[in-house]
Amino acid sequence: MLVARESGGARDGSPRLLREINDRAAIEAMLGRGALTRAELEAAIGLSKPATVSLLARLEKAGMVRRGELRGGNRGPAAQMWSVNGDLAHVAGVSLVPGEVDVVIADITGEVRVEHRGALPSGGDAPEGFAAVMVEAAGRAGLRTDQLAKVVVGAQGGVDPATGHLGFAPHLPGWEGFDVPGRLREVLGTDVVVDNDVNLVALVEMTTGRARDVRDFVLVWLGDGLGAAVVIDRVLHRGATGGAGEIDWIRVPDRARRDTGVDRSGARLGQLLSYRSINKLARAHGIRARNAVAAVRAARTGGAAGQAFLADLARRVATGVAGVVSVLDPELVLLTAEIAQVGGPELTDLVTAELHRLVVPRTPVEPAQCTDDAVRAGALQVALGLAREQVFGLPVTAVGVRSVPHDEQVEEGP
């Protein structure tokens, strides 16, 4: 860590600027690590004891940090713990799916205050129905919706940045043909961001999943609905109209060896990988299950018939992904959602082999690590990043809060 003093070091600057830089570094350290003692904060940001004492006093007076419990040690007096004041702001992350709203509300430190699910009506009153769920969730946290600093909503489809219209979302009746973020701002009385659900899952994979050390990758959602997220140089690529990654609508030939009656010359990829179509393909291989997910699970232990079905399914997936891989040449393709999860390494390996038969890049294919609530988690991550930028001045990137480089921590002058 490079430390400079105002009185003549590697960096010059006014006392106010140096204090602001150090304040941000201290806040970020406590947000990332939780409650810290003064000595631990010194070590984290590289300041002297007097400078850290002054910094904590300043932040406490401003209401940015607060004292916590005393930590006892084997030697000497107990140490005072310091943490960011979570009550400075609250945010909400929301997953919006047909018929349901899944909400999490957290304070600015990321501590979850409320988790709530509610029914979402379809039709023209869908935004008002959404608002009713949000009012109930906020109320459980002792808040009004207009007291939420940021609300980030993950939804199927993509939002056109020019109009705010939600496109590519036939499964969300009542949500097309108007400025969705603008309408939600009106009914909630606060700032609302709407993003594609698969994009938000990709953010989670970048921070806590398999793509933590990957710069360029494609995430493919194989659930009840098909989609993809494209990340280039660790930035989500949304496209000119918000439609980047909408591979659901690509028309591709069905390369399955068993004929299931689908137009083999050019079916819509979303049709080929719909739950109904996957289950139909399984039946063509003699595998009977109550639904597509159960069919894929049964195929893993279903002998030759199961392997043949998984191979056909892998051909469909690889055919759809091949064009994206050929154009982007990403470092990694990640498969996520229910079909990918139950298919496990067997399906992933088959998709890899088939993809490598179709394209020149030898892009590896792996299962994603994200959990069932990854859309909501990604929405919360973005909401926290935006709120922290607003409250603390911490810069935000596509994946949330940027870490302050070590060479930006500087020793304050007297």
From TrEMBL:
GO molecular function terms attached to this record: DNA-binding transcription factor activity
In what residue span(s) does the HTH marR-type domain sit? 30-72
Domain of life per record: Bacteria
What Pfam families does the database record attribute to this sequence?
MarR_2 (PF12802), ROK (PF00480)
Q: What PANTHER family does the annotation carry?
A: BIFUNCTIONAL UDP-N-ACETYLGLUCOSAMINE 2-EPIMERASE_N-ACETYLMANNOSAMINE KINASE (PTHR18964:SF149), ROK (REPRESSOR, ORF, KINASE) FAMILY (PTHR18964)
By sequence similarity, the record places it as follows: Belongs to the ROK (NagC/XylR) family.
The protein here is known as ROK family protein
